[in-house]
Amino acid sequence: MAYNIVVIAGSLRKDSFSLKIANALAKLAPGSLKLEVITPAGISFFNQDLEGAPPADWLAFREKLQKSDGVIFVTPEYNRAIPGVLKNAIDVASRPYGKSSFNGKPVGIISNSPGPLGGVSAAKTLQNILPGIAGPIMQQPETYLNGVGDAFDAEGNLTKDSLKGVLQAYLDAFAAHVAKHHG
């Protein structure tokens, strides 16, 4: 049986590195994981006034997460944090209070940047936000992917072998993390 994992690529840009990395993860996933890549596109702004009658896009996003066995966040770094659209998606999914769609879901975090720091501040932002609204966050390996600008070909396929190895090791660890928390 394969665990169903939602991979949230935290950028809306059509050719975003986060989306390319998320798609590479889906292709590299071991047989024990079935990865579905999504983005925060189409999730309307969180507004607590709407909680009594949530918009259909909120309900669809929450249901997708609730039906999953785990979540991997793949995020770029915007101004030393996560993109606003990703924070909005987390806010939508974590409500109403006490009924977070992330509850009990094993979580993984991968940050990335074409620069040298690999989006470490974005990953730390997620590590600050998720406790209390999500399940267990995988602690090791910490994965901050730097220099991703030359890792993909024109079609978005991963071509950098060193990155492929890092993602494969991450997926193997995440598969064990999910199995441990669903076993």
From TrEMBL:
GO molecular function, one term: FMN binding
Tree of life domain: Bacteria
Start and end residues of each NADPH-dependent FMN reductase-like domain: 4-142
Entries under Gene3D superfamilies matching the protein: 3.40.50.360
GO CC annotations, alphabetized: cytosol
Protein's UniProt name: ACP phosphodiesterase
SUPFAM superfamilies linked: Flavoproteins
